[in-house]
Q: What sequence folds into this?
């Protein structure tokens, strides 16, 4: 895939007058590679990867729930491994390949197997936690292409769904595994 | 919630990192996996002026298995050590305990050495460092020193690493051949902090325990080891069903209950935690003596 470069000149530090530093905060120039595209950014060192994705790059598919690593809504893939983007700084993510939920569709824009399975099995209700589930499950199926129900349950144990839609999400994991296998046979 | 402003440093050489730590002292903080540190920063429970991100330092991501130890570098993630066959064979307790460390996604980033430096009494790895009689190697611009587990853990959430020092390698000891090990914990939800957890290493020769060490998670302030050899003395561990012997169970319960020093919190009372420690120890012993289905690995 040809690398497209996008330069974003200004980033907005989070606005909170009571805690605004007296001097303008030092900005770091970093390059983030997200879904195959490189983005040059200027961000403060404290910019969380989740916020860099959402605020600076406009990739609002990554959702921010608890911001302390419990809920899993912000999970993205870092070099293919699911990681909490709220527990990483954008500056740390430089030099790594980041995949967000926006990067999970097939190149032609149709749904990837995990997304398709969620549609078929009613794996999403309000949808808030869904991006974190989709990224987590996508990576998991690479590791275990044929999980049992029990293994599927274990695989999603680090993600919270406040609609408690777990039964259908577990079903979606197993269905996604089937779709992947069918895709390989074609 | 967002971290308070800090100056972000990303050194590429160890000497550079040690220089930064020496320069910034108490104002500086080391960032490795960040799975404990970043939540603390996000909630503004800590606000260091300088953050030294060690993720780009070369050579710290190695696991090395030697005749008497498993040496784990500061950038080895939980997931890497969990998957390391050589480490699991040399010290089975590592894999047995790492399975209980948070969730796979957290294990992908969190580091083994980082969780030791965090010194959380509810962390699994501090208990494993203790039971294996391990140590931690520290580097500073001034030199290098190695702290035994007892020296390393000072108090709950407190270790002996000085502000200008970097914990570079954790050294987990190995047990003599024939030692069997097991780990268990009770958590409200799999992957949560344990209400109580227990690691046991047992070596039985001619019906007698020649090595019997146990350490705990969430029930002692700092990781500590209870030597169960005196407790098991006089009981024939070679006979089938030895673990079910009432006198042995009572002696074990007394020893464990006197050793642990749990606290109360919203999740469990001290009494309940003490009870769990006793029950877990009894069950693990039974498991290692072969009277229940084994989920254990031979060393």
A:
């Amino acid at each position: 895939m040809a690398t497209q470069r996008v330069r974003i000149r200004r980033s907005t530090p989070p606005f909170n007058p009571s805690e605004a530093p007296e001097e303008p905060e030092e900005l770091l120039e970093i390059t983030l590679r997200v879904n195959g595209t490189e983005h040059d950014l200027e961000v403060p060192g404290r910019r969380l990867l989740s916020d860099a994705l959402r605020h600076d790059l406009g990739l609002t598919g990554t959702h921010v729930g608890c911001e302390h690593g419990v809920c899993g809504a912000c999970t993205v893939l870092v070099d293919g491994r699911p990681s909490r983007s709220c527990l990483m700084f954008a500056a740390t993510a430089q030099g790594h390949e980041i995949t967000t939920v926006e990067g999970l569709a097939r190149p032609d824009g149709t749904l990837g197997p995990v997304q398709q399975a969620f549609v078929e099995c009613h794996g999403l209700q309000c949808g808030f936690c869904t991006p974190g589930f989709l990224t987590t499950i996508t990576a998991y199926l690479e590791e275990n292409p044929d999980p049992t129900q029990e293994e599927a349950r274990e695989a999603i144990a680090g993600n919270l769904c406040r609609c408690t839609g777990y039964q259908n999400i577990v079903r979606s994991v197993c269905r996604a595994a089937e779709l992947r296998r069918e895709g390989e046979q074609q | 919630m967002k971290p308070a402003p800090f100056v972000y440093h990303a050194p590429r050489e160890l000497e550079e990192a040690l220089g930064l730590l020496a320069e910034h002292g108490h104002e500086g903080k080391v960032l490795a996996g960040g799975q404990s540190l970043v939540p603390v920063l996000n909630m503004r429970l800590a606000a260091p002026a300088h953050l030294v991100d060690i993720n780009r330092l070369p050579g710290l991501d190695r696991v090395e298995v030697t005749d008497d130890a498993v040496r784990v570098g500061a950038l080895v993630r939980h997931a890497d050590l969990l998957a390391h066959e050589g480490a699991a064979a040399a010290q089975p307790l590592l894999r047995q305990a790492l399975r209980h460390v948070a969730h796979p996604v957290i294990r992908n980033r969190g580091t083994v050495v980082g969780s030791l430096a965090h010194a959380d009494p509810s962390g699994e790895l501090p208990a494993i460092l203790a039971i294996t009689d391990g140590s931690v190697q520290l580097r500073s611009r001034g030199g290098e020193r190695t702290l035994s587990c007892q020296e390393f853990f000072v108090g709950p959430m407190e270790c002996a690493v000085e502000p200008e020092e970097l914990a570079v390698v954790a050294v987990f000891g190995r047990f003599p051949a024939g030692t069997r090990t097991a780990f268990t914990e009770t958590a409200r939800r799999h992957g949560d902090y344990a209400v109580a957890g227990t690691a046991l290493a047992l070596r039985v020769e001619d019906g007698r325990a020649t090595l019997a060490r146990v350490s705990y998670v969430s029930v002692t302030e700092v990781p500590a080891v209870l030597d169960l050899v005196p407790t098991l003395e006089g009981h024939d561990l070679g006979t089938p069903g030895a673990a079910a012997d009432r006198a042995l169970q009572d002696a074990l319960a007394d020893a464990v209950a006197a050793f642990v020093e749990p606290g109360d919190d919203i999740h469990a009372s001290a009494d309940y935690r003490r009870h769990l420690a006793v029950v877990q120890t009894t069950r693990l012993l039974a498991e290692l003596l072969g009277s229940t289905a084994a989920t254990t690995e031979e060393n």
Summary: The CA atoms of residues 73 and 169 of chain B lie 4 Å apart. Confidence is low (pLDDT under 50) at residues 292-299 of chain B.
